[in-house]
Structure formats: C-alpha cells, structure tokens
C-alpha cells in the first residue's frame, strides 16, 4: 500500500505544517536522541487510530525534502471488523505531518525494545486529473472550525477530556473477561486492586510523553478507572487524547491485559463515556453558543456517539435522554460548569474526536453567529417545567438521520464533504456490524477501542 516514489512538496498547502520543519525536528531529536522509529498517525471515520511506521533514515529524508507520506485511499475506508467500504482505486492519500504534534512515546513497546515517536497527520486526497482535496480530513475540519471561531467571533477555545476504561484479561477460550473485581465509586479499596499499579504506570508514561494529567481515580463501577487530562486548545487536546488512549492500551498490553475505552465492554457493569469539557473565551456569547449546541445536539451525536454500542449508555447520569442542559446537573447531556464552560456527556471513545469536537464547536459558532435564543431552561432550577424536550437519539441510525437532515450551514461549517463521506462510511459500518449480538459486538470493540 505504500510508495517511496516522487512526492509533492508540502509547500503551497497552507495550514498543513511549517514550510521548513528541519529546525523543529532537529530540536526534538536533540531532546530525544534514542528514537528508532516514527509512527505517522491518523484517526479514521470509525474512530480507529491507524499508523505507518518509518525508519529513522526514511524519516530524515521526509523531513529534509519536506514531503508527505503517500498511502492508498484505504486510510479512511476501513471499518472496525476490518472490512472496507468501496473507494476510488486510482486515488492516493497523502499524509502531511503536523510537526508540532511530534512526541516521544513512553512504553508503546517493551521497555527493552526500540524507542518510538509519533506525529499526527492531515490527509489530502489526490486523484489524477482532479485538484487535491483537503475536505475529507477530520483534523483539517477541526482546524478550520477553530480558525473560524477566531476570525468570525474572536473566540478562543479550550477542550479537556475524561478517559474512562476497564481492564480485561483473556479467558482460556480467548474471550475477554473482567480482570478486576474491586469496588469503584472512588473507593480506596479499588486502589488495592491488582491492576491499580498499572494505572499508576500509565499516568507516569503519559507524563513522560508530554501529556498533562489532572487526576486519576477509581471510577463509578467495579474495575473501572478514569484519567482526566488537562484542558488544551482543541487540536492539541485531541492529539493528547489520541496519544493517551494508545499509551494506556500499550501499558496494560505490556503486562498481558487489555484496557478498553469501548462504550459497553462488560454486560452487567457500567458503560464507559468520554466526557468533553468545552470552554469559550471570552464567554460573552455563551447563551447563544449553548443554544447552537443544543439545537444541533441530535446531529452532534452522530459524531460523538457513533457506534451501535454507544446507545447502550443512554440514560440519566450517563449520556442523558433528552436535549437539555443543567448547572452542575449530571442527568443532562450538557452540564454547565461555569461561564462559557460546559461538559458534553453524550460522547464516548468510539468517536473520531477531531470530528466530534469540530461538530460541537461548529454548532456553538452557528448559534453565536445567528444570535439563537436559549429556549431550553436550566434543568437544575426547573423541576416544575412543562416544556416538552426533544429526545436524544436512541440508536446510531437515528443520530445519522439527524445529521443527514441538519441544515446546510452546519454541514458547511464542518465542510460538507467531510459530513457526506462520514455518513457514507458510518452507514456501511452499521450494516457490517448490526448482525452481531451485544456480546460479539462488545468483544470486537474491546479489542479495537
């Protein structure tokens, strides 16, 4: 699938990366002289992290020439079960590294093995006789939304993530079963679980990889943990999340266990969410921004809760059930934490978070641009309200239908080609996985997410 032939230069494609990466890369390698291999990474429409690994010699030639890595169009066409959606065979996808995301990876392999670095990439589609197409790339979609927020509304954003996961072990028949039976809900007893020492190792590995952690603890149910990342600007925040998921999984895999962030890995235990903390600065348009998010929340769910299994965590104190918000209210899908600061709870780790965050911010920007009124009451202070609130989608098909029926301005702010291609891939994914029972789906997604 790879190619080492002549590649077009990154020059002229604005917003992809610095024109002269040599200085930045040399400074990185001076700080990390032991790097053996570099992973060129991207997240596909199914939310799966994918990578190409290059040797240091080839990496150096890429940096010196300032050229991308060429891949087949398969980069955005694979599904969680390893099937593929049809794609244009004559197209190529060019991976343009964002050198600001270059990081050394701690414990992504055995401590005695080679040392890895990773760099997140934007994807440009190249088809013979057609102009290069940057409008399919989730990372570019997020970058464009952030840029619009600054240009149109003079808004800056910060994004933070909560990572919930459980630890599984292999049964004699090869199936994945729970590893820990220690209690959750912040219990100190959970800190004595056999897997807790590996959680501490994860936090150290995250720190060593430059990912700031705020806190970590035993989460809401048996054998469940949470790691909370510090808030960062949107692109950096999602880059951190992608790396953190990978480092957590690799740390536990190094000890023979599976850490999974999949929504419902164990039938009779709590689901895993991936709550997104969103803040806008300054918060002067906060009511219109919140109204924009709520108005388009069912469509946002197509990005933030994008798997069949996602809808097994619908309910109060999980993803929520109705389009609503509340001050410090964990029963609602959007919890207000402060001026211009919310927690979006209808999200999980099967999402391509570049697209999920782009959808949330894009919806809020439209609310701000259109001066949309906040017609939803604060559920924390409206117990006697007679307002009929719209139901959140209860299936992935429902949320995809909501995205398909949303107004053109929402698709435009995301880039309509991203949304239409995403819908095409996700419809195929639903058809590919809908025949699995809940146990088979949980087993599959636990290995992927």
TrEMBL record:
Pfam family for this entry, one? Gln-synt_C
**Which domain of life does the UniProt lineage start with?**
Eukaryota
Q: Which SMART domains match?
A: Gln-synt_C
Q: Is-annotated flag, keyword Membrane?
A: no
What InterPro entries is this protein classified in? Gln_synt_N_sf, Gln_synth/guanido_kin_cat_dom, Gln_synth_cat_dom
Q: Which GO terms describe its molecular function?
A: glutamine synthetase activity
Q: Report domain GS catalytic positions.
A: 138-449
Sorted alphabetically, which keywords does the UniProt record give?
Ligase
> Which GO terms are recorded in the biological process aspect for this UniProt protein?
glutamine biosynthetic process
The UniProt similarity line reads: Belongs to the glutamine synthetase family.
List, alphabetically, the PANTHER family matched: GAMMA-GLUTAMYLPUTRESCINE SYNTHETASE (PTHR43785), TYPE-1 GLUTAMINE SYNTHETASE 1 (PTHR43785:SF2)
Its recorded name reads Glutamine synthetase
* Originating species: Penicillium frequentans
